Amino acid sequence: MKSQPLVLGIETSCDETAVGIVRGTTLLADAIASSVDEHARFGGVVPEVASRAHLEAMVPGIERVCKDAKVSLADLDAIAVTAGPGLVGALLVGTSAAAGLAFALDKPLYAVNHLAAHVSVDVLEHGALPSPAIALLVSGGHTSLLRVDDVSSRITALGATMDDAAGEAFDKVARILGLGFPGGPAIDREAQSGNVSAIDFPRGFTQSRDQEDHAFDFSFSGLKSAVARYLHDHPDFHVADVAASFQEAVVDVLLTKALTAAKSEGIEHLIIGGGVAANSRLRFLAEERATKVGVAVRIPRPALCTDNGAMVAALGSLLVTAGTTPSQPGFEARSALPVAQVTLA
Ligand code: KG4
Ligand code: ZN
Q: Angle of helix 166-176 relative to helix 183-191, nearest 10 degrees?
């Protein structure tokens, strides 16, 4: 197999219609159309609205990346598409487009796991992935701690959120603070002028009694309620202090668990991805705290942390290079695809 496969990646698991093209580990083009503004007045992603937006944005996205990368569809070595986890109606738009293209062009098709794609994208920025590595994936839809021995075939789930995802907590707290949707960037901005230790918000699942069952799991719903209670009890609250203290609680828990996992697995590399990895405090503290315990951190640039097509193409390229068997054309998108399943047969 060629060492530098040219791969098209399609991502439609949530509200971004994203298409990317990579050659090997080089990003050639990436087009993202987001329906986030259409969801804003609902305070969260509405699946039907997202599916309709994917339908409208898919073909222009594919045409755009081919033009930007100066390649034609006939040049492709493979097509990769997110098959799960995600909103099933949204996933179906991407998988149908990818299956149609693969059939029409007679190209191999890889139906891939969205979480493995979030890990893979780092090859586009920092080169070959360290192995083994711990991966912390934090976004509006997922909060997962993984052990990655080989991103194309061996991923083990260590823990996940038991309730809200980290990004969802940012979005909900921003909403009660009146900061709009999506809340992560707004809280990040507000927190710049706040005091991180103004309010001692709870750190979910970090008590010694949690260590047996939930050492690497997360819970953010108690934190969200604590913020709501604080606002109720302190009508003259200072928004920046609440934002900074809330953000500190989330980031503290994420990094404590990720670095504890690294220690307990004897692993010296941590990769962080997902929309929340764009958070400036998380990026700063990850570097500071990991360095102290001898762990090397890799976080892609923010545009590659949020959902994108290049991440799917990057994983597709790794799968082609690894000689992985392509997926059958009749595969079905799976909203709850387990992370250990990197590709669908
Ligand atoms: O990965 P992503 O684009 O989509 C999902 O798969 O969910 O992540 C979106 C999430 C949203 O919850 C958003 O509020 C959060 O990432 N986010 C942030 C920041 N930028 C985006 N959270 C905290 N700080 C940020 N700077
Ligand atoms: Zn994602």
A: 70
CB 72 within 8 A of CB 21: no
Would you say residue 156 has pLDDT above 60? yes
Task: Note whether 335 and 279 are same-domain residues.
Answer: no
pLDDT digits (tens, 9 = 90+) for 26-85: 999 999 988 777 777 777 778 877 788 788 889 999 999 999 999 999 999 999 999 999
pTM for this prediction: 0.94
DSSP bridge pairs for 288: none
SS3 38: helix
Q: Which atom, in ligand 1's list, is nearest to the CA of 247?
A: 23
Q: How far is the CA of 318 from the centre of ligand 1 (A)?
A: 26
CA-to-CA separations, 331 to 11, 170, 244, in angstroms, rounded: 16, 34, 45
Residue labelled with tokens 């819970």: 219
Write the CATH number for 205: 3.30.420.40
> What is the C-alpha separation between 89 and 14, in angstroms, rounded?
9
